Amino acid sequence: MLLCDLALQDMPILKDTIAWFNELPMSSVHKSLQVVVFTDLNLDKAIEFNDYCHNHKPPISFIKAEVRGLFGSVFCDFGPEFTVFDVDGEEPHTGIIASISNDNPALVSCVDDERLEFQDGDLVVFSEVKGMTEMNDGKPRKIKNARPYSFNLEEDTTNFATYEKGGIVTQVKQPKVLNFKPLREAIKDPGEFLLSDFSKFDRPPLLHLAFQALDKFVSEMGRFPAAGSEEDAQKLIYLAGHINESSGDARVEDINPKLLRHFAFGARAVLNPMAAMFGGLVGQEVVKACSGKFHPLFQFFYFDSLESLPTENLDPSDFKPLNSRYDAQISVFGSKFQKKLEDANLFVVGSGALGCEFLKNLALMGVSCGEQGKLTITDDDVIEKSNLSRQFLFRDWNIGQAKSTVAASAAALINPHLKIEALQNRVNAETENVFDDTFWENLTVVVNALDNVNARLYVDQRCLYFQKPLLESGTLGAKCNTQMVIPHLTENYGASRDPPEKQAPMCTVHSFPHNIDHCLTWARSEFEGLVEKTPAEVNAYLSNPIDYTNAMIKAGDAQSRDTLERVLECLEKEKCETFQDCIAWARLRFEDYFADRVKQLIFTFPEEASTSTGAPFWSAPKRFPHPLQFSTADPSHLHFVMAASILRAETFGISVPKWAKHPKTLAEAVEKVTVPEFQPREDVKIETDEKAITLSTASVDDAVVINELIRKLEQCRHKAPPGYRMTPIQFEKDDDTNYHMDLIAGLANMRARNYSIPEVDKLKAKFIAGRIIPAIATSTAMATGLVCLELYKVLDGGHQVEDYRNTFANLALPLFSMAEPVPPKVIKHQDMSWTVWDRWILKRQSYLEGTSAMAQG
Q1: DSSP conformation class of 372
Q2: Which residues form the Ubiquitin-activating enzyme E1 FCCH domain (predicted)?
Q3: What are the mean pLDDT values of the chain's consecutive 10-residue runs (857 residues total)?
C-alpha cells in the first residue's frame, strides 16, 4: 500500500516518493502495490494517478480522501472489475427444517424458535435431510417468498422422496462483481452518492460541486481561502457557480452560498474529529481493497457536520491564528470557543478501545488543557495481550498494568497541557464515595466508553440526576453507533433499550444442543465448575467448616446437595495425589460426558420415543445423539485428556511431568486406566422443560442426604493435611499455553461430535466461549470522531435538538444512518406537563410555613 499526503509536497522526501511512484516500472507496481491512498491531492494530479491505477494490469485500488474543516470527501476506484467475496461479513444464515413439501414450487418450513433471516433471491444448500435425500446434493437453490419461518424454492420436488425429518438449510454467499468508473468519468457523472443523513438528501451533489470549486480556487490562487475572509468566500462561490453552469444534467438548482461561505472559511483546517471519522472509513476501504471482504464504497461519499459550528455569529477577528497548536481549530470555531474546550471538566468512563481513541482525540482538540479544565478517566481493568490490536495507546510492555494509568500517560505525551487524572474505580453504587455529589456537580460533560449495558445504565441515571450531558457510543465489529443524551432536549439512554438477547433454555444446553454455541456454552460452564467453582467451594469448606455446613443445612435444597457432593468427590473418591490420578480422572470424565450420559439419554428417550401428544420426541430442533468410543488413536480424544489432566493437576498442586505433553507416552498412561462398564438406570429424570431454571432434582430426602454428606466431609477434613487447600483456576482466554481454551474446545467439540454438530477450531471456540465482542480500530475511530463532533455542540451550549445527531454506521456495507435524537417523553396531568429531566424542588422552610398556616387555619 502507498499512502501519500501531498499537502506537504514541498518536503523532499514526499517529492521523491511521488517521483518513485511515477517512475515505477509496471512489473514492480504489480508486485508491490495493491492499493494507493491519497489524502490531499489536486484534482488534475488525482485523475492522472487514477488513470494509471485503473488501467494497470491488474488494477491498483485507488482511494482519494480529503477533509476540509467540517466537510469531508472520499472517492474509491477499485478497477473495472472488482470482486467482492463477502458483501456484509455476517455469518451465513441458517435454519432448522421442520418440513419440505412435494410441490412445485416446494415449500420449506422451519422450526419456530428463531426467525429466518433469508431474503428473496438468496441461494441456500440443504444437509442432513432424512427421507427427501435429493436435497442433500449440495446444489445451491434459490429462495422466493421468504417469510419469518418458511420460504418457497424455485424447484419442483413433486417427484422427490417424501420428507421424513431433520435437515439444516444454510445460506450460500455469492461473490459480487463491481464495475468502478475512473475519476475522470466519475467526476462528471458521479451516479448515486452514498448518503449519510436523510435530512440532507440534497447535500452530496452540492459538496461534489464545492470540492471542485475549492480545487479550482487553490489552482488559481496558489493557496486555500483564508478563515473569515469574505473576499475569498465570494471567490469560491463564484467558481462554484461557474462550474455548476457547465455541469449539464448534474447541475445543482441552488448552490447554497451560505453553506459555501462556511466551507471556504474552514477550508484550511483539518479537524481531529473529522480526521478520526474519515480515517476509520478509509482504513476499512483499504482492508476491502486488499481482501475483497465487505462491500466497497461506490464511489463518492460526502459528509459535513455544519451543525457543530457555534450558534452565535463570530467576528472575523476571532478566527485569527494565535500561533498555537490549535490554530486550525480556531480558524473554524474561533478563539473564544477554543477557551471553552480548554476549560471543560470531562469524565471519560472506560479506557479500552473507545477510551483510548477518545483520549487521543480530546488531547489533540485541546479539551481540558486550560487552567480551569480537568479530564478524569477511570477503568478498573488491566491491559491484556488481546487489547493491543485496537487499544493503540498500549504496548507489549504495558500488559498487566492499569489501563487508565497507561492511557492517561500516553495522552499526556500527545499534549503535555492535558489536565488528566486516572482512577481505577468502577462507576457504580459501591463507589459513590469516590464519585460523590461534588464530583458530578462539577462536571461539564460525561463521555461513556463502556462495553456493558448495566454500567451504561448506571452512568445514565447519574447524568439524569445531576442534569449532565452524556455522550454514548459503542462498536460491534464493523458496526458502530452513537447516542446523544442532552438534558431537557433528548431522551435518556435508559428510556429505550434493545430487547434482551435470547438465551437458550437450560435443558437445551445440557441435553439437547443443536448448534455449536450450545456446546460452547455448556463447555464454559463445565470448565468453571470443574476447575474454579468446585475447588473454591472446597477451600470455603476447609477454611470455615462450621459456618459452611450450617449454611448448607439452612438452604437444604437440591443445589446445596449437589455442591456438597462435588466437594466430597474432590476430597474423597476423586482426590488426586499423583499425575496418573489426574489422567485417570480426565479419562473417566471423557467417558462420563461423551459416552455414559449419552447412553443414559437415549435409554430414557429412545430414537422412536414420542411426546405426550404423540409427536416424535426427537423432532427438530432436537438432534439424536450417539455415544463416543474413546480411542488413544484419535488426537482429539487424547488432547482432551491432556488438557483436562494438566488443569486437574494444577488445582491439586501436582507437578506436570514433561512426558504428559508427548502423545505416545500419554497414550500409554491412559491405557492403564480402568473404565467401569456403564449400565443405564430406569429412575433417572432428564429435564425437558424449556422453562426450567435448574437441572437439580429436588427431593424430600435432601436434608437427610445433606447431613450424611456433611458427616463424610468431616471425616475427610480430619484426614487432610493441616492447611490443605486446592487452587481454583480462573478462565483466561488470552494465554495460549495455559490449556484453558484447549479444555473448553475439547469439551465443546466432543459434545458436538455426539450430536453430529459441525466442530470449530480453538480460535472460533475462544471467540464464542470467551464472549469476545468483536472490535476493530476502524469502527472505533469512526464512532469517537462522530462523538467528538457532537462534543463541539454540547460545549457551545446553544444548540437545539434538531442540531444533534445519533448515528448508526456499518462500515462493511457501507451504510450510514444519522438522525435527530428522540426528544424526552412528555407526561401530562391536568394543566401541567413534564419530562424525566424535570423536578420539583421542595424548600423545607416554605413547606413548614405552609403547614403551619394550614394548622392555624
Answers
A1: S
A2: 103-173
A3: 46 40 44 85 94 93 97 98 94 93 96 89 94 95 95 96 93 95 96 93 96 96 94 97 89 94 95 97 96 96 97 88 94 95 98 96 97 97 87 93 97 97 96 97 97 93 97 95 97 83 77 92 94 95 93 87 92 94 97 97 94 89 95 96 97 96 95 94 82 58 86 91 94 88 96 95 85 85 98 96 97 96 93 91 60 41
pLDDT of residue 378: 98
Axis-axis angle for helices 579-591, 635-651 (nearest 10): 130
**Exactly one of 76, 356, 507, 570 is catalytic; which is it?**
507
- Look at residue 499 in the predicted model and tell me its pLDDT: 65
How many C-beta neighbours within 10 Å does residue 535 have?
23
Closest CA to 196 of 579, 417, 480, 442: 480
Alpha carbon distance 812, 526 (integer Å)? 36
- Give the residues across from 476 on adjacent strands: 479
* Sheet containing 470-476: order of strands: 420-423, 374-378, 345-349, 445-448, 470-476, 479-485, 806-810, 815-819
Distance between CA atoms of residues 181 and 636, nearest Å: 52
Grid cell listed for 126: 440443504
Could you give the CA distance from residue 395 to residue 410 in angstroms, rounded to a whole number? 10
Short-list 759, 788, 782, CA closest to 445: 788
Helix (H, G, I), strand (E, B) or coil at 632: coil
What count of residues does the chain have?
857
Query: CA-CA distance, 11 to 586, in Å (whole number)?
Result: 66
Task: Tell me if 158 sits within 8 A of 103, measured CB to CB.
Answer: yes
d(CA 671, CA 668): 5
* Rounded CA separation 335/159 (Å): 80
Helices 558-571 + 702-719 axis angle, to 10: 20
Cα distance between the two ends of the chain? 87
Name residue, grid cell 452512568.
459
Q: Which residues pair with 110 in a beta bridge?
A: 97
Residue that is written with C-alpha cell 473404565 in the block: 675
The amino acid at residue 664 is K
Element (H, E) at 71: strand 71-77
Q: Among 497, 491, 443, 444, which Cα is nearest to 464's?
A: 491
789 Cβ partners below 8 Å, 6+ apart?
Answer: 70, 273, 274, 277, 305, 308
Whole-structure pTM value: 0.85
Cis peptide before 321 (omega within 30 of 0): no
Distance CA 20, CA 13 (A): 10
Looking at residue 734, what is its pLDDT? 76
Residue 507 appears among annotated catalytic residues: yes
Name 641's Cβ contacts closer than 8 Å, sequence gap at least 6: 583, 586, 587, 590, 666, 670
Output b/e per residue, 259-269; b: 16+ Cβ within 10 A: bbbbbbbbbbb
For residues 563 and 565, what is the distance between their CA atoms, to the nearest angstrom?
Answer: 5
User: What does the block give as the cell for 120?
Assistant: 428473496
Best CA proximity match to 256, nearest among 305, 204, 299, 302: 204
Distance CA 211, CA 267 (A): 10
For 658-672, the DSSP string reads: GGGGSHHHHHHHHHT
Other beta carbons less than 10 A from residue 530's beta carbon: 21
Task: Extract the C-alpha cell encoding 677.
Answer: 462398564
For Cα atoms 62, 236, 65, give the angle at the middle one, nearest 5 degrees: 15
> What pLDDT shows up at residue 501?
66
Amino acid at 460: D
Name residues whose C-beta falls within 8 Å of residue 667's C-beta, 6 or more positions apart in sequence.
632, 638
Q: What angle do CA 431, 434, 439 make, to 5 degrees?
A: 120
**140: three-class secondary structure by DSSP:** coil
pLDDT at 612: 86
Q: Which three cell numbers stand for residue 755?
A: 450430536
The values of phi and psi at residue 300, to 5°, are -105, 140
